[in-house]
Write a structure and sequence with these properties.
The protein has helices at 5-32, 62-66, 81-99, 106-129, 134-150, 167-177, 179-188, 196-209, 211-236, 244-269. By secondary structure, it is mainly alpha-helical. The protein is globular. The chain binds zinc ion. Zinc ion (ZN) binds next to loops.
Amino acid sequence: MAELLPYYIVIYTFVFLFGASIGSFLNVCIYRLPKEESLTKRNSHCMTCGEEIKRRDLIPIVSWCILKGKCRSCGAPISPRYTVVETLNALLYLAVFFYYDVMQYPLHAILVCLLFSALIVVFFMDWDTQLISNYVVIFIAILAVLEFFFSDYPYITTMSGNVSDKPWVSQLIGLFAVSVPLLLIELLSKGKAMGRGDVYLMAACGAFLGVGGALIALFIALITGSVAGIIQKHKSGDSVFAFGPWLSVGVAIAAIWGQQLSNLYLNFTFPNN
Ligand SMILES: [Zn+2]
């Protein structure tokens, strides 16, 4: 193990830097998708003076620290959020590669990394605009299809916690398990309690996670969302808020610890099982 340490340091450094660079692109998505702007055209520019940001000032995390969070030409503050998104994506990639046996399930690890990136976009975009981009949902749906056909990662699909070698049944049920109840809430509340974006998001994520993961994601979203809603109402008296960010948090936690959490819950509820 000790002689492998240098290799691990190299791999993890690469994963972190790669994650930070993807994080940089996520910032572009979060900012431009709601405005339906092209993701590839035009370079980034300062929000205050409009000056194009130079290539040397576009290094993820590092540039923001060197410039102490200020525009090089006009000195206007640059939101720390850009760096937060880059660092968050980098740390999540590290966590996934660290957590999964990458040698055993490399495709699953890569798909979970991409899922996390999509969830970061959903979190911040929905937080800002109360919108979930259809492009991001379609991206997650493609990940779910890849997981469906190619991933050999074993999911728990039975009540007794047995590992089934047919996770596609679970994924198929996961597609509807949370999205259909959310759709009913959306229709009954005429879109006030839930948006159609939340419904599509949980259809795509449910298909990725399988039924157990989808239910855990919803459970976590309800808890974190309620707490956030109470805090927000207390602070601003505003009861309108986006549910998508909390669904993203739930899906992210379910993607990593879904199996442990469902085992814990089943052992707790059915101790003799
Ligand atoms: Zn500027």
